[in-house]
């Protein structure tokens, strides 16, 4: 079960960082060359990285970090990811705007070293990760991925809160913000509702959020 914990927690963390660095600040883009629309193609690249590549890497990393010297495994995985990023650049699947591969290597080194500090806790579950954090990350992961597919890729809807100038950044931040709200409300409701009626939280909350979203869409939000 530790794989599920690591997957959901890492997805939550890297997704927020990726959205800020990629969509808001525009440091780099992922031209996957799989879709005609460059903006949608970039979001597809983000979803590949955040929902598949990096969470799976986190699972492998935590396994070795729990058995090896933390600095050694940090150096090894930083080197590997730096090499892969160089390949992505060479093949045209990654482009820099206000970024540099050495910045990425620095981010990898910091991120892996911090993760190495928690690897034993995730693998051996000692001390255990608080249930509220696990549940929050799980709910966020599900809602963020579903929202990304339905909204950003299939384009069934688009959020327009008007917070950011870039349309895709505006849409994704609103969608991820909604994921945070849903996850937070679920945690709060589960804490105050009697265990016998907690199952209704997972029924009532999605219905209410769907109704809220429908009303906003009708108003053009």
TrEMBL record:
Keywords: Membrane, Transmembrane, Transmembrane helix. It comes from the Bacteria. The keyword Transmembrane applies. The chain crosses the membrane at residues 7-28, 43-64, 71-89, 101-123, 135-156, 176-193, 200-217. This is Uncharacterized protein. It comes from Ectobacillus funiculus.
